[in-house]
Structure formats: structure tokens, C-alpha cells
Write a structure and sequence with these properties.
Layout: E1 15-25, H1 29-40, E2 45-48, E3 65-66, H2 79-89, H3 96-116, E4 133-134, E5 139-140, E6 151-152, H4 158-169, E7 172-174, E8 177-187, E9 190-200, E10 206-216, H5 245-252, E11 257-258, E12 264-265, E13 292-293, E14 299-300, H6 347-352, E15 360-361, H7 368-374, H8 378-381, H9 386-395, E16 405-406, E17 422-423, E18 430-431, E19 444-446, H10 457-477, H11 485-496, H12 507-521, H13 528-545, H14 554-579, E20 604-611, E21 614-621, H15 628-635, H16 637-644
Parallel strand pairs: 1-2, 1-10, 2-7, 10-19
Antiparallel strand pairs: 3-6, 4-5, 8-9, 9-10, 11-18, 11-20, 12-17, 13-14, 13-15, 15-16, 20-21
Helix pairs in contact: 1-4, 1-10, 2-3, 3-10, 5-14, 12-13, 12-14, 13-14
């Protein structure tokens, strides 16, 4: 190690051992709810989190809406309707289990959050009488004001409330500790998860936990195609350290993944590339349905599903005649026209229609309550917006009653992404699982962003709670098993290798090399030759670059481990792309050597797992989860009978 003065104790080589019934890896919304759920069932629970649980995870600084709370008292839709709409909207390359759990149990989790101290109602009557507010319940709704199944919430209150509940329940928390490896053992001819290894990112000390059951609740991958080595601290939406380590850990032990070939143009990255998504005027998600104008002040109209121009702001929030509902964020079911207003209007089409750049969000043209709920509540409660956007813009003089805010991104401006700059966004790939959210490895469950086809914060809470109770049930029948000391020794050598070198390659250099390799060989258009070259190049990085990695302190060491995980996930993605031998519109997947799009024989989930050091292909029918309502009830009689319906 260098002579750099590190402010924490040096605990390299120190090994702490612990045991529990249920081990939760990841302290975001999904992980916290998994830990709460298991602890409520009387289990000894340990939670491992790389950051500080009180504010860690993608929603650590907030979330502005809770999607698909279909059983709230004001909702006019059923869980079956909304979950099925998601599956249909995604052309059945969709996680019906994930969506149905979210729709069926989302309101229960909102009530839990309120009980813990989170704010889900307009208790101060700030918006009393507003069209989007139910004055009897004080609930506030977004997007679809008729059906009222997506709620506006004060998400900045959520993580502190959850943290307080974890402490109340006696969950043992290891903060500033990165989970690095899943421990397994062959039992009765099957591989079983028996715990995990972690490293304290302040001290370098190792943690080995033996557990009867484990819940993976870490992040989806990032920094795969996009990485700016000059701005490594800049992340627009998800935390910089949320890079898919859980995916890499699972892949190393043979866990099965699907839809890893799916990738869309990057939007909300953790890689220092795009404009802060909610710090610019637009009409998507947090800003829906802001009035948009061009450089002359000419308003860009909204249209309904049938192509009719909407004359009032209120009409933007209601389905068209004969249309049942909107999905979240303005996505509409059964569209008859591609152009549905500025929410989905392609940039080139706007120009053809005579609108002039640049475009702006003009909140001054909206009713007072609508203006205040966008700029003040939604912009302020969404991730990373309270301080850098709402507070700083206001301090510098931005006034939504008289100023307009320029729009970037959404395919409209120079900040849009190139075809080769992809990200795992928009219901991306992830872990394949069954109705118990169990992986193909016995004793290991998954929730939130670890699941394929994952979504937003409310879904993380619902699936986290679900996985936690399933893991708690699993723990009833499993014994504790001591980890193989050879496994621990191998992981220890892997983790410490970089810090015991005197010099070498910095983690940023390898991260940059991986992202350039993925841009070049796994971009917008793929073919076998490109993919194979990419696989070979990554293998050369393992052989030549990884042995040169050098870290000065435990923080650098953590970043080094992240890049090793990024290397694993990139390899998984390349193989998943190689395994799908056709193009697919819903997967945003194009192969020049297999130009046929969505042939019937390939309308399946292609799976990938590592076995004996090589990637193995599998496939699963698209609707493998069966009838959503009946299958859910078959697997959750204890929950339904427990008064949670």
C-alpha cells in the first residue's frame, strides 16, 4: 500500500463471521422491505449495504410517485387489468409475476410505509380541492385522474422511515460493506445458497455470513456502455456505485438470467453522460403533462389515443372515450396513432410539422395546482431533485409562474444518445425466477432491480416484501451450513489482489476500456463476428489487465471490484446477444446476420447462465407464469388469509 493517509482503521486480513436465518444483500427499497418482512416473521435477519441504509439506493433521496397501487380505496382498476396491460404493452417480453405482485400488494406496502413514518397523503392540505386529490382520503394521483391507481408521494421521507423500522425490528445491519460473493454448497445433488462474503469499504475487513436463505436485492447493471473517466462522481439518476454486482455474483455461481440482450438508448445513467433527467423541462414522468412550447412560444399540442387535439390541461390526464385507462407516465393502451402528443412525438416529426428548436416546458400556462405539484412536489421528491434541482434553481431565480425551462434529451436535442451508447433501462434483463421469486439456486431469492423486467420504487417495495416472506418460509426448513474455507480463501485472494500491488492500472482505465469495447462490439446493430470479437477482447482484459489492477485504499478497492463485476456482466450480455439468433423489436435488438424480426419460434425468453466456466443457453416460454390471478393466489394463501387483502 502507498503512504496515503486513510482516515479509517486498517482491517485487511481481519475476518468477521456471523449467522442468520435470512440474509439480505442490498439496502435499497427492495432490500429494506425484504428485511422488514422476514423480521416480522420472527427471523434473525442480517442486511448488508454498500452505503448508508438511511439514504442508500436509487430511491435514497426520494421518489415522486408510486405506480400501480391498484387496490387503494379510490382505484377504478384491478390488479389483473393493469398487470395484463403491462405484459401486453411489452409484447409479452415481460415479467408478469413482477407486475402482478406490484399491482396486488403495492397499496399494502404504501400503508406499511405510512405506518413506518413515510408520507403518502397531503396531510397538510397543501393541494386541497385539486383535481388530482381525493379530499376524503387526502391521497393524490398522477397520470390517470379517472382511474387513480398511481399516487403522488413524498418519497424523500421513505428511506429514513424504513431505516427506523429496521432498527425497531432488530435487523442487524452491516453498512459500508459491499457484498462480493455468494457462497454455495451441493446438497442432495442440488446447488444451494448458504450465505455470502462481503468487504467493509472503509476498513477492508472481510465479512462472512452463513444464512439459511438469502435475498438478492441489489441494483441493475450500469457503466456497461457509458463511462466518463473525467466525471466519475456524476450520476444523473441511479447512484454511481449501483452497477449490477448482484448480477455478477449470481452469474459466477450459475444463476440463470434472461432478456440480457435487451438494451435501449441510455436515458437515466450512472455514468456521467446525460443531462439530469428531471433538471430540464420536459413532459415525461415527473413532468407529465407539462405544457411544451417551441422557441417562438408556439404550444405543442397533446392528442388523445384517437388523434384528437386536447383543448385543456385537464384532458391530458383522462383516457379517451372508450379507452379504459392510461399506464404510468402517459403510456397509453391500444394506441391508434403513433403521434400522441409531445410525450411520444419523435424529434424529426416535430420539425417536419414546423416546430422550431429549442423546446421548453412552460408551467406558467398550466393551472396553479398543476404547476405547484410538478414544480415543488414532483420535482423535489423524485430521486436527486430536492437539492440540486428544486432548491438550487429556485435560489438562482427560476420562477415557474413566469419562466420556461429548456428541454434536453428524450430524443429531441443534442443530448440524445447514439445507437452504440446503450443502457439496461426500460424493463431490462435480470434474474429468471418462479412464483416464489426464487432463483434456480435453492435458498436464494431476488427482488427489485435484480429481477428481469424490473420497474420503479413501488415495485421494489412490493417484490422486496414478497421475497422476504418467501425467504423466511424457506429458512424454516434449511439448516445452517458452514462455508467451504477454500471458497473463502479464494474470494479473499481475489478481493485483496489489487491493494497488495505497488503500482499498476487504475480501475477507471479498465472501466473505460470495457465501455469502449461494448460500444464497438455490442452496439445498436450486432452480428456474430462483432460479438465474438467482443467476447475475445473481454477475455484478453481478464488475462492481461486484471492482473495489473492497483488500488491505494479500500475505497479504490471497492471501485476495482465494481469494474470486475462490470466485466462479468458485459460477458453475460455478449453471450445473451449471441444466443438470440434473430432480431426483435420489443427487445430493441437488431442483428445484421439474422434480420428476421420476431419469428414465432424465437418468441421466447432466451436464458443465459455460466456452467463449468462457459455460458450456457436456455429458453423459457414467454407466458410461463400462467394466469396471473390464480397462480398468485395458489402461492399466497397464507398472505391472503392474513388480512392483507
Amino acid at each position: 500500500m502507498s503512504e496515503y493517509i486513510w482516515p479509517y482503521a486498517n482491517e485487511l486480513e481481519k475476518v468477521t463471521r456471523d449467522t442468520c436465518d435470512v440474509l439480505v444483500l442490498g439496502g435499497g427499497l427492495a432490500g429494506c422491505f425484504a428485511a422488514v418482512s422476514a423480521a416480522e416473521r420472527g427471523k434473525k435477519v442480517i442486511l448488508i449495504e454498500k452505503g448508508a441504509v438511511k439514504r442508500s439506493g436509487s430511491a435514497g433521496t426520494g421518489m415522486d410517485h408510486w405506480e400501480s397501487a391498484c387496490t387503494n380505496p379510490c382505484s377504478l382498476v384491478t390488479p389483473e387489468e393493469i398487470a395484463s396491460a403491462y405484459v401486453d404493452e411489452q409484447d409479452h417480453y415481460s415479467n408478469g409475476i413482477f407486475h402482478y405482485i406490484t399491482c396486488r400488494e403495492g397499496w399494502d406496502r404504501m400503508l406499511d410505509m405510512e405506518k413506518f413514518g413515510g408520507k403518502i397523503r397531503d396531510t397538510g392540505d397543501e393541494f386541497k380541492g385539486a383535481e388530482f386529490r381525493d379530499d376524503a382520503t387526502k391521497l393524490m394521483f398522477a397520470y390517470d385522474y379517472r382511474n387513480r391507481f398511481t399516487l403522488r408521494v413524498w418519497g424523500s421521507t421513505f428511506k429514513p422511515a424504513l431505516y427506523k423500522e429496521l432498527l425497531r425490528l432488530g435487523v442487524k445491519i452491516y453498512e459500508h460493506t459491499e457484498a462480493t460473493a455468494l457462497l454455495t454448497k451441493e446438497i442432495n445433488g442440488r446447488k444451494r445458497g448458504i450465505g455470502a462474503v462481503g468487504m467493509n469499504v472503509h476498513t477492508g475487513g472481510l465479512l462472512v455470513v452463513s444464512a439459511r436463505a438469502t435475498v438478492l436485492a441489489m441494483s441493475r447493471p450500469a457503466r456497461i456502455w457509458l463511462f466518463d473517466s473525467d466525471l466519475p462522481g456524476l450520476c444523473e439518476f441511479r447512484p454511481f456505485q449501483s452497477i449490477g454486482s448482484g448480477h455478477a455474483m449470481g452469474y459466477r455461481i450459475g444463476m440463470e438470467f434472461t432478456m440480457m440482450e435487451k438494451s435501449v438508448r441510455g436515458e437515466f445513467s450512472a455514468a456521467g453522460r446525460s443531462f439530469p433527467p428531471y433538471g430540464t423541462g420536459n413532459n415525461h414522468n415527473t413532468w407529465y403533462a407539462a405544457t411544451m412550447v417551441d422557441s417562438r412560444g408556439v404550444e405543442i399540442p397533446y392528442l388523445d389515443r384517437d388523434g384528437n387535439i386536447l383543448q385543456t390541461v385537464s384532458q391530458r390526464y383522462y383516457p379517451a372515450e372508450g379507452q379504459k385507462f392510461f399506464l404510468k407516465g402517459g403510456v397509453i393502451d391500444e394506441p391508434k396513432y403513433e403521434y400522441r402528443g409531445p410525450e411520444t412525438m419523435p424529434f424529426d416529426e416535430l420539425i417536419r410539422r414546423g416546430y422550431r428548436l429549442p423546446f421548453y416546458a412552460d408551467l406558467s400556462r398550466m393551472p396553479e395546482a398543476e404547476r405547484r405539484v410538478i414544480w415543488g412536489m414532483m420535482v423535489g421528491e423524485e430521486g436527486k431533485t430536492k437539492i440540486p434541482v428544486l432548491q438550487y434553481y429556485t435560489e438562482r431565480g427560476f420562477d415557474p409562474e413566469k419562466h420556461i425551462l429548456q428541454s434536453y434529451g428524450s430524443g429531441w436535442q443534442s443530448a440524445s444518445f447514439l445507437d452504440q451508447e446503450r443502457q439496461l433501462f426500460g424493463a431490462p434483463g435480470g434474474i429468471m425466477h418462479d412464483w416464489n421469486l426464487k432463483t434456480n439456486i435453492d435458498g436464494i431469492y431476488a427482488a427489485g432491480d435484480q429481477l428481469f423486467g424490473s420497474d420503479c420504487g413501488g415495485a421494489a417495495c412490493a417484490t422486496g416484501h414478497y421475497a422476504g416472506r418467501k425467504a423466511a418460509d424457506c429458512a424454516e426448513g434449511y439448516e445452517l451450513h458452514e462455508a467451504d474455507e477454500a471458497q473463502i480463501a479464494e474470494e479473499k485472494d481475489r478481493l485483496y489482489a489489487a491493494i497488495y500491488r505497488n503500482d499498476g492500472m487504475n480501475w477507471k482505465q479498465l472501466n473505460k476500456a470495457i465501455s469502449k469495447a461494448m460500444q464497438n462490439y455490442c452496439g445498436g446493430v450486432k452480428n456474430r463476428d462483432l460479438l465474438m470479437q467482443g467476447i475475445d477482447l473481454l477475455e484478453s482484459y481478464r488475462e492481461e489487465a486484471v492482473p495489473q489492477l492497483y488500488a491505494e485504499n479500500p475505497h479504490d478497492l471497492m471501485r476495482t471490484h465494481e469494474v470486475l463485476d462490470i466485466l462479468e456482466v458485459s460477458d453475460m450480455i455478449l453471450h445473451a446477444c449471441l444466443f438470440r439468433e434473430s432480431s426483435s423489436k420489443p427487445l430493441c435488438f437488431v442483428r445484421s446476420d439474422y434480420p428476421e424480426t420476431d419469428p414465432p419460434e424465437d418468441r421466447r425468453f432466451i436464458t443465459v447462465r455460466r456452467e463449468n466456466g462457459r455460458a450456457v443457453r436456455g429458453s423459457v416460454p414467454l407466458d410461463y407464469f400462467g394466469d396471473l390471478k390464480s397462480e398468485y393466489e395458489k402461492h399466497n394463501q397464507d398472505y391472503i388469509g392474513g388480512g392483507k387483502e
